[in-house]
C-alpha cells in the first residue's frame, strides 16, 4: 500500500509544487476543489458564486498522516476541543494556518503536527500533496501526505485537541463509506460528504479531502 500511494503522488505532482509553494503564491490562486464544488444545492448545481471568497485566501495546510501497524494502515485524525470558538468538536487532520516563518505548506503541516499532537517531523516521510481545497470560510488548505513512524508518544495540545484516534485506510478507501448528507445552509438545502466511523462523524473539508484522496488511490492505473 505504501508503494501504491507513493506512486500515486509521484505521478500526480512529482516536483511537489503545491506542497513547496509559498503562502503568498497559494493565497492568490483559487483552488479547483472546495466547498463550492461539493456544498451544492440539491435542485441547482451551479452555485459556485454563492461560495466565492475574495482573494487572497488564508493559506493553511494539514497533514494526512498514514500509519502502518503490523500489516494494517490507518489515517490519524484529531477531534478539536469543544472549548474552541470555531469548529469546536469537529474531526480534522493535524494542521492550521501558515505562519510567517513557514517556508511552504510542508513546513506548516509538520509544525502543526508537532504542536498539536507531539508528532516530530523526523517521524514523517512526506510523499506528496493534493490540490489545495477552498473552504466557505475563506481558507485554502494544502493537504500534505506523509507516512508516519508509529513509535512516537502522542500528546494532544489541551487548548486545541480533545482526542486523537485512527481510522482504517481500508475504511476510507471503501466508496460505500463515502456518504452524502444534506443540511440547510444560508437558506438553501446543501449536500456534503460524511463518514460515520464508530462514535465519530467526519464531515466538512476533512471528509471531502478524504474522499478525494480515496478516489486518487482507487483510480490509479
Q: How does this structure look, described?
A:
This protein has 221 residues and is of the alpha+beta class. It has one domain (2-218): Nucleoside Triphosphate Pyrophosphohydrolase (Alpha-Beta Complex). Helices cover 26% and strands 34% of the residues. It contains seven helices and twelve strands. The chain has helices spanning 2-12, 17-20, 23-27, 35-38, 105-117, 169-173, 204-218, and strands at residues 33-34, 58-69, 72-80, 91-92, 95-97, 124-129, 133-134, 139-148, 161-168, 179-185, 188-197, 200-203. Strands 1, 2, 3, 4, 5, 6, 7, 8 and 9 form a nine-stranded mixed sheet that branches. A three-stranded antiparallel sheet has the order 10-11-12. β2 and β3 form a beta hairpin. The protein is globular. The two termini are 14 Å apart.
SSE blueprint:
Layout: H1 2-12, H2 17-20, H3 23-27, E1 33-34, H4 35-38, E2 58-69, E3 72-80, E4 91-92, E5 95-97, H5 105-117, E6 124-129, E7 133-134, E8 139-148, E9 161-168, H6 169-173, E10 179-185, E11 188-197, E12 200-203, H7 204-218
Parallel strand pairs: 1-7, 2-8
Antiparallel strand pairs: 2-3, 2-5, 3-4, 3-9, 6-8, 7-8, 10-11, 11-12
